[in-house]
Amino acid sequence: MPLFKRSTLADQMAVEIQQEAALYKERCKNLHEEFRERLRRRDETKAELAEIDTELSRLQGRGISLLGQLNDATRSGDDDRLREMEKSYGRNSRELDRVGRRREKAARRFAAADLDEEESARSLARAASDLLDEHAARTRELKGRLIELLDTLDVQKGEVSRAAASLIEEHDLRRRPNAAG
């Protein structure tokens, strides 16, 4: 293989190593973004749970207050107020049930997201490790081939230098006046 072609091939291999590194870097970046997205979804569910818990606390406090008012209405014998308090307490209880069901669903989503995050972290760590191993193996292979090419180039360069040296010496001998005579 001509010297120029081997040199070009070595340059191409060096570029290929850089491209491989960029490709693996991009793949790892995508894995990291996927993991961050899963964390974001888990955090959103956690925030939703906190909002629901706040709403539940408010409804429970209201329920306790309504029970006190219902008790007062019972003691006072005010039937109209008693019916009104019973309706209010019933509405509050239904609202508590509805919000409680919402919380159960959100808690299941959070538990699933939390588990998913843990599994994702392990899975993504394995994938990133595999990518790095694959990249390292590929880089070692390409570097090995590149070193072989560079060694071949050095040998050929030495051969060219020796051939050129003898040609230069022969040329110098021809140019000397006493060598011609």
TrEMBL record:
It comes from uncultured Rubrobacteraceae bacterium. It comes from the Bacteria. Residues 73-98 are annotated as: Disordered. Residues 75-98 have a biased composition (Basic and acidic residues). This is Uncharacterized protein. Residues 14-62 form a coiled coil. Keywords: Coiled coil.
